[in-house]
Design a protein that fits this description.
6 helices; alpha/beta; Rossmann fold; 151 residues; 5-stranded parallel sheet; 5 strands; single chain
Length: 151
């Protein structure tokens, strides 16, 4: 399947947490792009990334972040496509701070949060595939195959 989902993390240290979900995507042929860009360290690079996504055919962005979790809200402020935030463990409250940051995003943002950690990332992939499958009939069988792995 052509890349319709963009995955973004704020740090290379986040990659091991999302690896099981990315492995599932590769196994099933679910197209995605992956970027590592910190909202705090590289805001201009992140803004430029966001502005290109719709033009590149991306329909959903999954933004994974820990601690202050600025990344999902930042991404949602620059795009007009759905953003799924995934809180990652770490920091003083082991992911609760990230979760609260994402779900406290101000009104007007197309942002939802799927939870904390590895299972939240897998749920974000499923939710993103559900969004893609609304317009793309080729995505529906992949979505069903993905869901079957958890039944």
């Amino acid at each position: 399947m052509k890349e319709k989902i963009a995955v973004i993390v704020g740090s290379k240290s986040d990659l091991p947490v999302i690896k099981p979900g990315l492995d599932l995507c590769q196994e099933l042929g679910i197209g995605y792009s992956l970027e590592v860009i910190s909202a705090h360290r590289h805001p201009d690079k992140l803004r430029n990334f966001c502005k290109k996504q719709e033009k590149n055919g991306i329909e959903v962005i999954i933004a994974c972040a820990g601690m202050a979790a600025a990344l999902p809200g930042f991404v949602a402020s620059y795009v007009d496509i759905p953003v799924v935030g995934v809180a990652l463990s770490g920091g003083l409250l082991d992911g609760l701070d990230s979760l609260l940051s994402i779900v406290s995003t101000p009104a007007g943002m197309g942002l939802v949060c799927s939870g904390v950690g590895k299972s939240a990332f897998i749920n974000a992939i499923i939710f993103s595939m559900e969004i893609v499958a609304v317009k793309d009939n080729k995505a529906k069988p992949l979505l069903l195959e993905l869901k079957k792995k958890f039944r």
